Amino acid sequence: MNKLELVQALKDSNGLSKPEAEKIVNLFFNEMANALAKGDRVEIRGFCSFFVKEYRPYTGRNPKTGERVKIKPKKLPFFKVGKELKERVDW
């Protein structure tokens, strides 16, 4: 399912217009992204949680030249599946 299909499902199941459903979906994802950008954790009980993981700087290697390269510290979002979703998928 992609974002457009999610908008369509919300529209069909709740009698909303397409712009209204799209606004709701965009608001949901924007607020999640804003929370993660601030370093907050987003948790949807039984479904999943999103959090930001921080990586320290390290020395890597360029695969073409073999040259050592310094990798800057970075932050990446991570997804962790909830227990109920895990059970539902692994039936």
SSE arrangement:
Layout: H1 3-14, H2 18-37, E1 42-44, E2 48-55, E3 58-61, E4 68-71, E5 74-81, H3 83-89
Antiparallel strand pairs: 1-2, 2-5, 3-4
Provide a descriptive summary of the structure in words.
- The chain has 3 helices and 5 strands.
- The chain is elongated and about 60 Å long.
- The strands form 2 sheets. The chain has a 3-stranded antiparallel sheet with strand order 1-2-5. It has a two-stranded antiparallel ribbon with strand order 3-4.
- It has 2 domains: 40 residues, IHF-like DNA-binding proteins (HU Protein, Chain A), CATH 4.10.520; 51 residues, HU Protein, Chain A (Irregular).
- α1 crosses α2.
- It is α+β, with helices and mostly antiparallel strands and 91 residues long.
- The mean pLDDT is 95.
- β1 and β2 form a beta hairpin.
- The protein starts with a helix and ends with a helix.
CATH architecture of the largest domain: Irregular
The CA-CA distance between the termini, in Å, is 20 Å
> What global shape is seen?
elongated
Secondary structure class reads alpha+beta
Order of strands, widest sheet? 1-2-5
- The structural domain count equals 2
Summary of the model, kept short:
The protein is an alpha+beta fold and 91 residues long. Helices cover 43% and strands 30% of the residues.
Keywords:
two-stranded antiparallel ribbon, 91 residues, 43% helix, HU Protein, Chain A, elongated, alpha+beta, three-stranded antiparallel sheet, 3 helices
